[in-house]
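User: I've been trying to design a sequence by hand for this structure and keep getting stuck. Would you show me what you'd pick, starting by listing the structure so we're on the same page?

Assistant: Good idea, let's start from the same input. This is the structure you sent:
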């Protein structure tokens, strides 16, 4: 069966089309992105602006058409922190549903962490033992720790790379003083979450998911994406410190020239690196493994798990409302 996952994040809208069946490895068929920067389309009252809502509706409509043209039998549309926190979220979601026919659902931060953890567990398997996972998004940082497919601890913190760039690193380049201040603040913010994660149990494997971690690993010497998803990639704390010293002196335009860094991501790369560094320091991690699967794959896996072979697609337990209806031509 061909499924589409429509991910409305703080920075981008991403449509992933996969061929999948229960018990099998979801095979990606296509991946399409649009830089929407929804988190930057909020007014002083936390409302998504009319212009921002209009761009969201147009993008969702475009990607829904693309999913239909890709012969997806179902579209799973969801949104994360930007719409989760918008004070007019219900109004915007109603407009999206009315004008595009797409029932866009908002995931909680804890669900983000849990579904991402599921994808990581499936990728590395049971032999990995207890896994600790970190995922840096535009608006939030998800952290989880567990020995099964459901983590013992699943946390979501408002420490996303885009959010911290807007709140802390507005200058370009950001400057040593601001970087030092953000480092100290992150250390304080992570004391309690790190304690919760450590109390769940010592991990056998520490993992990083998200585009931010993949970019940081690439910039510190990991294999490029062209090498394929099964090549082992790691990010070390020492390499990350050296990278931060380098990229924090560069402008966003210069960072966009680095291999593996898009112009859309270059502005928030320093903040993302500081969050990664602080998280690893708080958890005493010298290195982490990079996992190519994350939230979108977790949604697909949870969906397939809930369906018997050959049964019609319906919303599975645990993510009710996230899965949209069967697509019509």
């Amino acid at each position: 069966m061909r499924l589409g996952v429509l991910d409305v994040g703080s920075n981008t809208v991403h449509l992933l089309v996969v061929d999948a069946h229960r018990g099998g490895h979801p095979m990606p068929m296509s991946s399409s992105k649009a830089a929407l920067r929804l988190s930057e389309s909020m007014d002083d009252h936390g409302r998504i602006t009319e212009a921002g809502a209009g761009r969201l509706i147009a993008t969702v409509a475009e990607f829904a058409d693309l999913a239909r043209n890709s012969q997806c039998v179902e579209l799973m549309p969801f949104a994360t922190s930007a719409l989760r926190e918008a004070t007019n979220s219900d109004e915007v979601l109603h407009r999206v549903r009315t004008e595009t026919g797409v029932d866009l659902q908002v995931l909680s931060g804890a669900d983000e962490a849990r579904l991402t953890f599921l994808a990581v567990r499936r990728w590395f398997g049971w032999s990995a033992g207890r896994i600790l996972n970190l995922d840096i998004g535009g608006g939030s940082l998800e952290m989880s720790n567990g020995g099964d497919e459901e983590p013992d601890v699943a946390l979501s913190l408002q420490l996303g790379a885009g959010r911290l760039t807007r709140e802390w690193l507005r200058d370009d380049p950001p400057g040593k003083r601001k970087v030092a201040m953000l480092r100290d603040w992150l250390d304080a913010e992570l004391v309690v979450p790190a304690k919760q994660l450590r109390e769940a149990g010592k991990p056998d494997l520490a993992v990083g998911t998200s585009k931010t971690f993949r970019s940081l690993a690439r910039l510190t010497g990991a294999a490029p994406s062209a090498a394929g998803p099964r090549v082992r990639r790691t990010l070390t704390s020492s390499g990350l410190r050296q990278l931060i010293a380098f990229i924090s002196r560069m402008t966003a335009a210069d960072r966009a020239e680095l291999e593996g860094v898009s112009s859309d991501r270059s502005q928030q790369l320093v903040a993302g690196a500081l969050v990664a560094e602080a998280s690893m320091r708080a958890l005493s991690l010298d290195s982490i493994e990079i996992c190519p699967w994350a939230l979108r794959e977790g949604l697909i896996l949870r969906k397939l798990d809930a369906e018997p072979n050959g049964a019609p697609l319906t919303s599975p337990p645990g993510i009710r409302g996230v899965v949209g209806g069967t697509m019509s031509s």
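That's my pick for every position. To get oriented when you compare it with your attempt: The mean pLDDT is 93. The first strand starts at residue 2 and ends at 8.
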